[in-house]
UniProtKB/TrEMBL annotation:
Record localization: Cell membrane
Protein family membership: Belongs to the Rieske iron-sulfur protein family.
Name of this protein: Cytochrome bc1 complex Rieske iron-sulfur subunit
Subunit structure: The cytochrome bc1 complex is composed of a cytochrome b (QcrB), the Rieske iron-sulfur protein (QcrA) and a diheme cytochrome c (QcrC) subunit.
Gene of this entry: qcrA
Entry keywords, A to Z: 2Fe-2S, Cell membrane, Disulfide bond, Electron transport, Iron, Iron-sulfur, Membrane, Metal-binding, Oxidoreductase, Respiratory chain, Transmembrane, Transmembrane helix, Transport
PANTHER family linked: CYTOCHROME B-C1 COMPLEX SUBUNIT RIESKE, MITOCHONDRIAL (PTHR10134)
Coiled-coil ranges per UniProt: none
Length: 352
């Protein structure tokens, strides 16, 4: 819009207006209204070659932003977390943090710089005077707003400058990918770790009190013994994570007292091995009623019948205790036949 197209009533008054603004200050009106300065055309307004150069500059900035976003993702995947580099004058810093900060910062900077250069060189810079008006918009004003919006869209040349539009949309679409990639750091993916323990074929049952492998003769009828897999060391950094799934309750029953057929098949001479982890919220079960063969969780009183497949007979637990199939090895020690056939501990949404 040129100054000749501005409505006459919006131009600065020659002598005064409703607010008392005047061209020249006097005693009555000490504040003068100098009006709008003459509009000066930019080189891009009169030279299409200069406009093309500005368009290519903006497109280059948006393209660099896209490449920086790709570099951000590549750095996140390729650079080890523990790698350090020397950067003067900062010193030794994390290579991953440095790369992520530089690439994401450059991607965001180029989008901002491209938008600023676009506005300053290609969008209309004609100043328009507009008188204050009531807050409530009249139909004429609404129509004018719509017309101004259409005019602004036309003056932004986004429809005509397809190279800018496409690269800008590409840059804006790719920058959020950096945030999506960062979601990976919410925690390691569990994979199938919730379905498996360190129990495997041939793993000996070790008494958690004596740290010695168990023989059938070490387990008396009616007794309760806690066991863990051979090779698990309490000094290992992942001991707590593993023992939270590996801990066993070893109980010896009279074979005639075992009601569940599979439980009897998976036992050895009445010795049964059940997970010690309650299937409600994962508390360790430590109470055993010798006469009833019931195991009681001290947290929420879930009760399991260890003579009937470890099924739940009371409390909020959702399913029976998993049983570990055991046998006796050639050296006479109790050992596992395989891992648990089902996940131990509380249910999870992938459980199947």
């Amino acid at each position: 819009m040129s100054s000749q197209e501005i409505p006459e009533e919006n131009l600065p008054a020659e002598q005064g207006d409703a607010h008392g603004a005047v061209k020249v200050a006097d005693e009555k009106n000490p504040f003068a209204d100098p009006g709008l300065p003459p509009h000066e055309h930019r080189i891009q307004d009169i030279d299409e070659r200069a406009a093309k150069r500005s368009e290519r500059t903006v497109a280059l900035l948006f393209t660099v932003s896209m490449l920086s976003t790709i570099a951000f993702i590549a750095a996140y995947v390729a650079i080890p977390v523990d790698k350090a580099i020397y950067v003067w004058p900062i010193g030794h810093i994390s290579a991953l943090n440095f790369a992520l900060g530089m690439t994401l910062g450059l991607a965001l900077f180029c989008i901002g710089a491209g938008a600023v250069h676009w506005a300053r060189t290609l969008m209309s810079d004609v100043e328009i005077a507009d008188e204050r008006h009531p807050i409530e918009a009249s139909p004429e004003v609404r129509a004018q707003v719509h017309a101004d919006f259409k005019q602004g869209a036309a003056e932004s040349v986004i429809g005509r400058r397809k190279l800018i539009r496409h690269t800008m949309l590409g840059a804006l679409a790719m920058v959020p990918l950096a945030g999506v990639v960062l979601l990976r750091d919410l925690g390691p993916l569990p994979g199938t770790s919730l379905r498996h323990t360190t129990w495997a074929k041939g793993k000996k049952l070790v008494n958690m009190n004596t740290m010695e492998p168990l023989r059938p003769s070490d387990v008396a009828v009616g007794s309760l013994t806690f066991a863990m897999p051979d090779g698990l060391n309490e000094h290992d950094h992942d001991f707590q994570k593993n023992i939270a799934k590996d801990a066993l309750m070893i109980i010896r029953l009279q074979p005639g007292d075992i009601k569940d057929k599979r439980e009897l098949e998976w036992s050895h001479e009445g010795i049964v091995a059940y997970s010690k982890i309650c299937t409600h919220v994962g508390c360790p079960i430590s109470l055993y009623e010798q006469q009833t063969h019931h195991a009681l969780c001290p947290c929420h009183q879930s009760t399991f019948d260890l003579a009937d497949g470890g099924r739940v007979i009371f409390g909020p637990a959702g399913h029976a205790l998993p049983q570990l199939r055991i046998t006796v090895g050639e050296d006479g020690y109790l050992e596992a036949v395989s891992d648990f056939e089902e996940p131990v501990g509380p249910a999870f949404w992938e459980r199947g």
